[in-house]
Amino acid sequence: MLINTQSVSDAAWRLRVILGTIAVVHVVFILGLIVAAFWNPAFVGDTLGAWAGYENGERMMWQNFALVAMACVGLFMWAMMLTLAARVFGQIADGEVDEAATIARRLTLWFWAMFVLALLSPMILSVISTWHMPEGQKELSLALNSGQLSLALSALITGCMARALAVGAELWREHREVV
User: Fold this and answer.
1) Between 61 and 136, where is the model more confident?
2) How far apart are CA 3 and CA 173, in angstroms?
3) What pTM does this model have?
4) Which member of 63, 88, 131, 165 has the lowest number of beta carbons within 10 Å of its beta carbon?
5) For residue 147, how many C-alpha atoms fall within 13 Å in the half-sphere facing its CB?
6) Do residues 107 and 84 make contact, with C-beta atoms less than 8 angstroms apart?
7) Cα gap 30→73, rounded to integer Å
8) Assign residue 118 a region: left if phi > 0, alpha if psi is -120 to 50, beta otherwise?
9) 161 pLDDT band (50/70/90 cuts)?
């Protein structure tokens, strides 16, 4: 009996397209953020500072650009992770499970890197956002929240998925040899 892989291939291809599109949207947003930062750095810096929870005072120009750089790094990492995830599903759709497992292992490393960035970001953002304030009002914050824990869990799940894909590829090779 032959295994019908068409439904899996179709679903994987749809996921590849969806994740690839979301990655492109992230890249467009990064470019828009960079353009906006050069167009009106104070507004962009104030907006990003407010999103980070620091709505206080006039920031220096370098602070505005540092906040933009931090946002761009985070968005870039998400774009890379989405691109890698799209490639995993693209390889699954093409029946290249070995390559999908290799890419999934790389995706796991990106998830761990994003987790580290998520742990460091509150500290970096607090220093950047309060640098201009008088002594005694500057901050250095450390936070651990559910988003960071979700990233760690995602990294663990992606690692398991990579291992499962490797085992699945081996089983698929054996199946093809028997048939």
Assistant:
1) 61
2) 13
3) 0.81
4) 131
5) 8
6) yes
7) 9
8) alpha
9) confident
Confidence of residue 20 (pLDDT cuts 50, 70, 90): very high
Tokens of 34: 């960079």
Are the beta carbons of 108 and 155 closer than 8 angstroms? yes
DSSP 39-108: H-HHHHHHHHHHHTT---SPPPHHHHHHHHHHHHHHHHHHHHHHHHHHHHHHHHHTT-HHHHHHHHHHHH
Structure tokens at 159: 């690692």
Q: Running DSSP on this structure, what letter comes out for residue 134?
A: P
Q: 87: pLDDT confidence band, cut at 50, 70 and 90?
A: very high
Residues in Cβ contact with 57 at an 8 Å cutoff, skipping those fewer than 6 apart: 132, 133
- Cβ atoms of residues 103 and 158 within 8 Å: no
Residue with tokens 């987790």: 115
Structure tokens at 162: 């990579």
The per-residue pLDDT for 72 is 94
- Other CB atoms within a 10 A radius of the CB of residue 64 amount to 23
Say how many residues make up the chain.
179
